[in-house]
User: Fold this.
Amino acid sequence: MLELFFDNGAGWFAFPAFVGTFIFALRLVLTLAGGAGGADLDLDMDVDAAGHTHGDPGDAFKVLSVQVIAAFLMGFGWAGLGAYRGSELSWQWSLAIGAVGGVAMVWLLMILLRFIHSLQASGNINVRNALDAEGGVYVSIPGDGKRGQVRVIIDGRQRIFNAISEDNAPIDSKQRIKVTKVNNDNTLTVRTL
Assistant:
């Protein structure tokens, strides 16, 4: 078995294939486990952590990241080994096919990482979208500029906001209201319907 991987120059393809596959798989497992590729790995050892930083999700998109280099080595090694041993092509053709395989793996990795990155969504709701929304009073609004609370639906989600009455008149709970203004302090100015 070792002859298949290391005899007659096949080691030039087998070594990058094994190293790339090991690093790629290790980083993938650590990333999926929440370790950001090992940056947050907690070991029970005396280690100087002065240079410790948390992994950035954007690190996966850097041109020369560890994941990209591992993907290239993995693609180069396995494609080259397959061409050299499996198809019995010459060293030069196997080298060219290995390079194409490495570039293809990097391209595939970039496509997959961009797709995964596109799945991210922000859970933040812009309070400005509450303007002209209708809802109900949750906690009575006393009037005279004092605050109560209202329930409104923004972007398909029910939210509770502090609110004041538009005409400074009290509004009882369970009254239907309409938002007439979004104030700078993220409170709402409302009027009854």
Notes: The longest helix spans residues 91-118. The chain has two domains: 2-118, 127-192. Confidence is low (pLDDT under 50) at residues 37-54. Residues 134 and 178 are 4 Å apart (CA to CA).
